[in-house]
């Protein structure tokens, strides 16, 4: 099968699984339609997504390559379908059903790594940049279309929140069908890819691999390569620095994303603009993702400044969002903070982020912790970004001091 055919299939799956028009209005649906109290949602329901995501990420991360990707993609589709079946058929006022949804959603988000990894086994290395952009853009396109449609239907009162969940369920069922018809990955193909990478590492005198390929040898080669990459990645100070920022920023991003609709819901208004707000983010991101393959930036030179400024800006926006009464300003500010990740280093960093987020959730939001109201929570998240900015401002000041001393001498 041609590389573009496989890319079209996996991107179709990405668009369909991301086409969930009910997602911007889940808080309204749970709170207003299903009669789940805000206190229960904040303290008993939403924290479970963080905990389940963290718990399932480790086995998924370890087993995705060994299960040869497609089964994990199918599992992701099943987890999403399960979520929306429970949304549609769940009983009013039943907190347990909502908790099961969060656990299933944790499985779905943890298994998303297979969606990104699948295509790399199926295409040549020369196509990696292209397919990376396409698979990310597919998700953004699906979200953008879904959220604009949701806003149109809700603003014109053509439908209600439950109908949006039915539409989401239909799209996810189609995504499941596409996941099933995706071509299987042969362990021999995956093994050959590993051998090719080993030979590249050992240039100019590569070893000759004349051993008979078997699945157990593929498993051993996979983990051997995995630990070698792990050692190489975290022996570089540049990558350690970026990994630390990524983990801390992702922690804050996940937490804000998990509770942003609760904050929006605390501002009462006649119209709910969640759809258009959520749609603007992927709309802006689509051209950025497609163009990033052509952009070259000297991150070693500008990295610290970027990390510090972004953390300061995000912290300031969250601080304002926690206090403002303007629904429009809250939406505009919330649309600024978005992130995405893939590959080995991002998978590990995501796990570190989830560990930090679990601690933050247990202290700030969980019913067994402080159980703060939503606005004080966002003050805490703003301070968290401020801490990140302080940490990464250190190297900048050191460079300024060195530059000043050099200039004087």
What's the SSE blueprint?
Layout: H1 3-18, H2 26-33, H3 38-45, H4 47-63, H5 70-89, H6 95-110, H7 112-122, H8 128-155, H9 161-181, H10 187-201, H11 215-233, H12 237-265, H13 274-291, H14 299-323, H15 327-334, H16 343-364, H17 374-408
Family: Belongs to the reduced folate carrier (RFC) transporter (TC 2.A.48) family.
GO molecular function, one term: vitamin transmembrane transporter activity
Pfam family, one: Folate_carrier
Could you write a compact summary of the structure shown?
This protein is 77% helix and 0% strand. It has 409 residues and is mostly helical.
Give structural notes:
- Keywords: Membrane, Signal, Transmembrane, Transmembrane helix.
- It is a single chain.
- The chain is mostly helical and 409 residues long.
- It folds into 2 domains: 3-185 and 234-408, Growth Hormone, Chain: A (Up-down Bundle); 188-203 and 212-230, no CATH class.
- The chain is built from 17 helices and no strands.
- 38% of the residues are buried.
Quote the CATH topology of the largest domain: Growth Hormone, Chain: A
Basic shape? globular
Q: What's the helical proportion of residues?
A: over 70%
- β content, as a range? under 5%
| Rg from alpha-carbon coordinates | 23 Å
The largest sheet, given as strand count, sense and whether it forms a barrel, is:
none
> Which structural class best describes the helix and strand composition?
mainly alpha
> Would you state the CATH class of the largest domain?
Mainly Alpha
Can you tell me the residue ranges where pLDDT is under 50 for at least 5 consecutive residues?
Answer: 204-209, 322-343
The number of helical elements comes to: 17
The average pLDDT value, as a whole number, equals: 79
Say which CATH homologous superfamily of the largest domain is assigned.
MFS general substrate transporter like domains
Number of domains: 2
Number of strands: 0
CATH second-level architecture of the largest domain = Up-down Bundle
Termini separation (Å)?
Answer: 65 Å
Order of helices and strands: HHHHHHHHHHHHHHHHH
Keywords: Membrane, Signal, Transmembrane, Transmembrane helix
Signal peptide: 1-18
InterPro entries: Folate_carrier (IPR002666), MFS_trans_sf (IPR036259)
Family: Belongs to the reduced folate carrier (RFC) transporter (TC 2.A.48) family.
């Amino acid at each position: 099968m041609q590389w573009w055919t496989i890319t079209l299939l996996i991107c179709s799956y990405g668009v369909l699984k991301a086409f969930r028009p009910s997602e911007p209005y889940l808080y309204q649906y749970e709170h207003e339609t299903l009669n789940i109290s805000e206190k229960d949602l904040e303290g008993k329901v939403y924290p479970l997504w963080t905990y389940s995501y963290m718990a399932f990420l480790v086995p998924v991360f370890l087993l995705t390559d060994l299960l040869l990707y497609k089964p994990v993609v199918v599992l992701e589709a099943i987890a999403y379908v399960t979520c929306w079946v429970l949304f549609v058929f769940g009983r009013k006022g039943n907190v347990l059903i909502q908790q099961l949804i969060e656990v299933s959603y944790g499985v779905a988000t943890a298994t998303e790594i297979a969606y990104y990894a699948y295509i790399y086994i199926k295409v040549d290395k020369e196509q990696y940049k292209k397919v990376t952009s396409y698979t990310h853009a597919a998700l953004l396109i699906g979200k953008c279309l879904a959220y604009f449609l949701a806003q149109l239907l809700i603003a014109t009162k053509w439908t209600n929140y439950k109908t949006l969940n039915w539409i989401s369920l239909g799209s996810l069922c189609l995504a499941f069908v596409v996941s099933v018809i995706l071509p299987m990955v042969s362990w021999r193909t995956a093994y050959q890819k590993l051998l090719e990478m080993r030979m590249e590492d050992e240039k100019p005198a590569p070893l000759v691999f004349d051993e008979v390929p078997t699945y157990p040898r593929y498993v051993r080669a996979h983990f051997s390569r995995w630990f070698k990459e792990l050692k190489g990645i975290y022996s570089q100070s540049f990558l350690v620095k970026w990994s630390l920022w990524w983990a801390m920023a992702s922690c804050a991003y996940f937490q804000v994303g998990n509770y942003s609709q609760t904050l929006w819901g605390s501002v009462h208004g006649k119209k709910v603009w969640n759809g258009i707000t959520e749609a603007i983010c992927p709309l802006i991101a689509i051209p950025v993702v497609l163009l990033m393959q052509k952009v070259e930036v000297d991150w070693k030179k500008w990295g610290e400044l970027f990390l510090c400024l972004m953390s300061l800006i995000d912290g300031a926006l969250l601080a304002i969002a926690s206090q403002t009464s303007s629904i429009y300003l809250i939406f505009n500010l919330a649309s600024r903070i978005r992130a995405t990740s893939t590959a080995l280093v991002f998978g590990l960093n995501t796990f570190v982020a989830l560990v930090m987020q679990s601690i933050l959730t247990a202290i700030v939001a969980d019913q067994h912790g402080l159980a703060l109201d939503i606005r004080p929570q966002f003050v805490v998240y703003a301070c968290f970004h401020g801490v990140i900015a302080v940490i990464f401002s250190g190297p900048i000041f050191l460079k300024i001091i060195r530059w000043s001393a050099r200039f004087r001498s």
